[in-house]
Amino acid sequence: MRESLAEEAAELAELSKQLAEMKHNGEQTELRTKEKWAKQPTAVNITAESDNLIKEYKAQFATLKTRLKDLSGNTRTHCKLSGVLTLAILSTKKDSVEERVYSTLLESAKGAIEASRNAVEALQEDDLRILFAEETQLFNILAHAAAYDSKTDERAAQSQLHLRELSGIHVDVAIKNRLAVTELELAADVEQIKATTELIRRGAEKTEIDQAVAELAAKKTRDSAKLVASLQDKLSVANKAAVERHQAAAINFELERAQAFEQNTFKEVAMANKLRQSLQAIEKNVQVALAEKRAVLLQALKENSGVNEEVRRLTVKQIEVDTIREELNLRGAYISIDEGYVVCERYLSEVVQGLEPSSGYVLKQIKLYSVEDLKQLQEGTYLEDVRRKLKKQISAIHYKHFEASRLKSLGRSDADVFSLYQDVDAHTKEAIGQIEVATAAEVWRAKNICESQLEDKEKIHKQYEAEVGKLSSEYEQQKSMLRTLYETDRQQLVDKAGRNEITDPERSMFEVEKRFTGSLVKAELAYCENLYNAYKAVLGRITAEEATADELHHLRQRLHKESDAMEAVLDSSTAHRLVDLVRAQTERRAKEEKEFRDANEDFTERSAQLALKEDEESKALRQEVKEKEQQ
Length: 631
What we know:
Elements: H1 5-39, H2 46-91, H3 99-143, H4 154-202, H5 206-248, H6 253-303, H7 309-353, H8 359-409, H9 414-498, H10 505-630
Helix pairs in contact: 1-6, 2-3, 3-8, 4-5, 4-6, 4-7, 4-10, 5-10, 6-7, 7-8, 7-10, 8-9, 8-10, 9-10
Coiled coil: 2-74, 447-481
Region (Disordered): 589-631
Keywords: Coiled coil
């Protein structure tokens, strides 16, 4: 992460400025060269110019290769340090998690480190391959500079290039659409967290919860429909602007090709920047909403006199787990988007350049994303395991407290209460065991899902690799055949010139060179068109796979959020009802005790009065008997 979004925006603006300057300098250099050569065409020494350019570009390509190797070395070092840091952070959790959990997380972390290292190695190899391919292409042109006819059907070549650029616009817009939909989903999640917080604050009942969840779902459906319409309009506008620019562009294939390279680079960096900005903004909103929810829950605990310290401690821990789990889910959504863009943009850049796609590197890259996705799912599952266990423990404590109070009110002994505690602990232990079994099953299921998805993705890319490999093989065979014909024609021409059978050997050699280079350009044009058609086909399969993955992710998140909302509010409502019930029972017992005391006091007073009356009557009776005896 950069220090600030402003710094990223400044770097992006600087890149745009550099690309504009490069384009301007290239156009000015071409214009000056044309003017110079037009003034003295006979003074132009094509061979000398070609030799100078070959020498110059050899040095430049050597510099680029050195820089690439240095960058690759730095990336490998960073990758290694990142792996060490990941393992070090994980080791701090060793004593706080179960051994089976730690073993699974450790295995996933090592898998991610290995996949990252393999992806970096593949990237270096593929970038070097691209540099070598561009270097070979340029030197082939310079080797036949006098006759190289880049303008052979240049209009068709430029038209085909523009079609590839339109595909690039579709890829760029498609990933922005995915990002916009994800932002809408996450914004709806934030809104639901806030609504849940308010329901908890008010101690809402189930009917109100159902209504709130339904209203939020309906609002999101309306917002989604508006967003889809807006995104379709933006795509139409982008297409129209690109077509108008293409129609107005002068026929200059090499210039348009170079500009396409630059724009692809700029869009790739801009999209990466947009993804980071979006993640930071959504992450901030989620954290604010979670902080508010946490404050409300803690305040409710503080105000609830019926909650003991152990429940407070466990509830605080549960809130912390929920926060970490939300952050994991958030990053998981962006991993999927990042994968789709990196893969499609990599393929597109190479198709625009007319190069064989980097299927080997892409396969390593999707393996890395798959491992990262599995790691996120496993961590999320174990956090859910901790959360469910905490809830079970909290529920058990509430039940113990309530039942103990009830038993004591009935005059039951401490032994009965202790027996109750033992039964509750036994049931809680059994329930926690069932949670662990369910968690293990969920981890196994997540691993199978990730492996299945990876297998499906690898199948798509391997088929594409085989198809493109066949096209490239045929193209290389065609170039080899053309070069063989060229060498044969050239040798025959040399032989005829040696026998003085040709009046103008130089002109004849130029025609042979021109025919050869023209054939190469046509073969390259056909190859680029075949690559483009293959790319369109695989792009459709990749897009379908991404749409399915997005829908599953959004569905999982939606169910998760609705369940969390219902659970949190019901927990709060249940706690309030338990407190009210305990209070009511306490008040009833106090009333009964008062009535008993009042009745007992009345009974005592009446007994005393009766005893006094009885004494008086007995005394009078004895006096009466005594008087009768005296008579």
